[in-house]
Amino acid sequence: MIFSTLVALAAVAEAMPQFGGGGNTMLRFGCSQVVIDRIDPLVNPGQAPSPHMHQVVGGNAFNTSMASTDIAKLADCTTCGYSEDLSNYWTANLYFKARNGSYKRVPQIPNRELFNDKYTTGTQGGFVVYYVSPGKSKVQAFKPGFRMLVGDANKRAKEGSGLKSQTCFRCYTGPNFAGDNAAPCADGKLDTEAFPTAPCPGGIRSNILYPTCWDGKNLDSPDHKAHVAYPKAGPATFTGSSVGGDCPSTHPVKIPQIMLEIVWDTRQFNNKADWPTDGSQPFVLSTGDPTGYGQHGDYVFGWKDDSLQRAMDEAKGCMGASCGGLKTQAVSVGNGCKVPSRVKEDIGDGWLSKLPGMEM
Ligand SMILES: *[C@@H]1O[C@H](CO)[C@@H](O)[C@H](O)[C@H]1NC(C)=O
Ligand SMILES: *[C@@H]1O[C@H](CO)[C@@H](O)[C@H](O)[C@H]1NC(C)=O
């Protein structure tokens, strides 16, 4: 990677001054893909197949249904760098639609190294997960059984003004993550809520930011959103006051800020001659969304015992993929953790005539 660790640290500290130490914690760690499957235990429990395809990382308790229990006790391996994180995180997949109407799945590339973390450069599929806390005793870690959803799979247009979304894309214009120093979903030039409109030579990055306030009572809610909320100042940006910002009285408990960061390897699809003749861009989420506004993320908490709370409370603050007494594992071990796919179908590593679950 082009950045030396020192340069990268300086860049991140500059972009995110509140993470310069002094007790702030920002865990940042890679998780390999545990499965790609058309199931969704949160939104469509028990359904196999569910309406659209997902890519999933984390523990091997992932299943068509996941009871609201301590899944850290059900899983016995994880694809994540922190081996006590048996949570599951999942998002839509990305597909390329060719001029002839065929689809092919866009693979993911390991993320760049930061904070001396070799793990994220060696993951297979998957993405990077962040947990942010503004300091000791300032956030309450999730309780066993907790789950939530961010984003709306049916959204197809911008809502509100400015770039204050919980999901965004960044077009990598060069092969070396050029322009990557600015904090995600915060830069009105680099980041867009819709898919980039031109080919991105270094791939497309997705960021998905979860709410940071909780009602303090419910582990879930019927829409998987109502029990959590953004701070009073509105949806989070990673540099905003969201982590330290005041929570609404309805959701007074501050929870760690989770962010997912996915790098889609679009390089094999960058030939403009293969792009639509009407000038539109060719990528589509596995929901059938050609806009990108419907990007969404699911989360089921599964850290062992009090390990997440200990990380969030670490007195000196933690950066990256090592933190106090938290256990980590070799990437080869994480890459070996898998769950079998429940729905046997072609996921699009060759050409498909339609998206899995979608009409033509
Ligand atoms: C997944 O769920 C199915 C159906 O409820 C169950 O039969 C199976 O044992 C579960 N698998 C795992 C690994 O938990
Ligand atoms: C559709 O287009 C892609 C990309 O050009 C090509 O590889 C594929 O063979 C085509 N499929 C059909 C059915 O023509």
TrEMBL record:
Residues 1-15 form the signal peptide. The keyword Lyase does not apply. This is DUF1996 domain-containing protein. Residues 40-303 form the DUF1996 domain. Keywords: Signal. The keyword Signal applies. Pfam families: DUF1996.
